[in-house]
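## retry 2 of 3
previous attempt timed out at serialization; input unchanged, resubmitting
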Amino acid sequence: MSVRIKKSFFVPILVTMGLVAGFFREILIAYYFGTSREVEIFRVAFALPSILSESIAVSVVSVLIRNLVPMRRGSFMSGLRQVVWGGGLIATGVTLLGIVSMPAQALLLAPGISGAQRELLVMIGRICWVMSLFVIMALPLRALMSVRGRVWPGASSTFVRSAAFGIVMIALITAAGETAISFAASGAVAGGLAVLVLHALALAPTDRRRIALTFFKRPSLDEMYTIPAAVMSVIVTQLFLSGGRMIDRAVASTMHPGTLAAVEYSYAILMAAAAILATSSNIVLAPKIAKNISRSGMHPNIPRQFKLAIFGICACAVLIGLSLTFLARPVVSCVLERGAFTESDTILTAEILSLHALALGPLVCSLILTQIVILRDMQGYLLGVAVVKFIIKAVALAALLEAGFGAASLPLSLLVAECCMMLSLFGVLARLSHQRCRPV
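## retry succeeded, writing output
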């Protein structure tokens, strides 16, 4: 096998390893904490720091890369200063805001958790925000290496983060001889720090020196605030895209203890299946679609073979989702039922998963269509789609709760929201096609 072929498989292998490690992290959490109130506190505390670090990484790196593309020495160093200082400003600002506003987050995101448990939630949340500081600080380094053609550190970030999380959490629990949710929060911080250290070590010595030089000359205020302003749209879009899940946590916190945890474990299984299908598909299809767009001058029509491939992948996702619906209990039992995760936890989680799985087809389709919109450099449309999805999710959830569906309202409203997002993305692509094909 040639070196080129080996390299083409390297990044997908790292991404897959990250997905596996992330899922293994969920298994560890289930083993040690089951569906206890402690793990529900961690889920809520970990949510926003995770969204504002890991989930926005790819989009933020794309924004940062634009400032690094000019490779003449003077313009490159100017862009590097903007990236390093702008990235630092984002990391510091997001982290400080998260730490200071943690009491308000606890009230808004988990109204069903009160008293001493809310105080614990605030403390765990503040620890988790330190994780986001490290992860966001690594993004400028990741952008610089992407410009250099070295993408493996970014591709391995999820694996390193999840592996460090698990190792540190197990070590602390073993050393203490007891389980405490603060150990999971410490594992999260260790994961963020590991990502930053990985990127720092992976830098070429020349680039490491250039980054050190940026600290001696601060860019102008206009230059420094350009990047945070651009990143804000990415953050707002991601918050709306993830808003439905945050609503689910808030509602589940008011239900019977264990419901929130069961919803999160079900989400983990659903998203693992979606990530494997959508990520593997995007790895294969995205470069080919990008080349087609480049050759055709951003012509909106997607070749028929790509449409058939997308249809086949989505149809496969629907079938897998239906299979999970009928096999939810044995799947949950096989994957999670050990340690603190008991048979009653399996029954509760399986009830949620059997309905969550119905959304797998639309979810995978939405992920693939989102990538196509991004490839066409039409990210601006995603904010509108995200807002629509959030509103529909909230309205559907309220209607289902009012109708008496109880905990089933959470996964059913996800199905409605994902179907609407899929249709919205189809509408965006159809509108672009109509506009660009219209005769001048």
